[in-house]
Amino acid sequence: AQTVTQSQPEMSVQEAETVTLSCTYDTSESDYYLFWYKQPPSRQMILVIRQEAYKQQNATENRFSVNFQKAAKSFSLKISDSQLGDAAMYFCAYRSANTGNQFYFGTGTSLTVIP
Amino acid sequence: EAGVTQFPSHSVIEKGQTVTLRCDPISGHDNLYWYRRVMGKEIKFLLHFVKESKQDESGMPNNRFLAERTGGTYSTLKVQPAELEDSGVYFCATSTSGRARVTEQFFGPGTRLTVL
Description:
Chain A is mostly beta strands. Chain A has strands at residues 3-5, 10-14, 19-21, 24-26, 32-39, 46-52, 60-61, 64-69, 74-79, 88-96, 104-105, 109-114. In chain B, the strands form two sheets. In chain B, strands 2, 4, 5, 6, 9, 10 and 11 form a seven-stranded mixed β-sheet that branches.
């Protein structure tokens, strides 16, 4: 079974600085998708960014970018110019391209943004 | 457009009681998923509906959990009888059945269930 590991339960960053959240995963598949979801306090999870495994180029969405290392099975999220609204729980997720639609999630990283 | 909604937001019950959680999907979303997060652990898949049919229920913990999706619209997840280890946050997510290679799952705010 696929597993997703987020080794940083908590992280903090100064406002306007850059922070990187780590995520590794284990799979024997070659075609899959990776996601970062954000859950602000008392609010629902929203998609931050996604990456298709067959694409070598790292995905970017404004201040959010990923470092996708397929051989190392690593999928880190970089948040640049951190803002107070970035404070949230961040979940890394994996989905197979071939064997079902379920997501496999990590345990989450709680990000605090310090003013 | 309304997002995925879940009811109730919180539920506190005693061991042995029954609780029913409800999820209302985004209109037109054929796929509906239930997930659960136990405190401090990963979010785990429970099951997947395509319209009213159960596509995959491999993540359901045991037969105390019953999920339904009548008419392919809203879904309910009933726990009967509830046990202490059922405590956690139950998330519902929905997605379209589009032709896109990657379909995003839209999550509800979750129901926090506490079993005493």
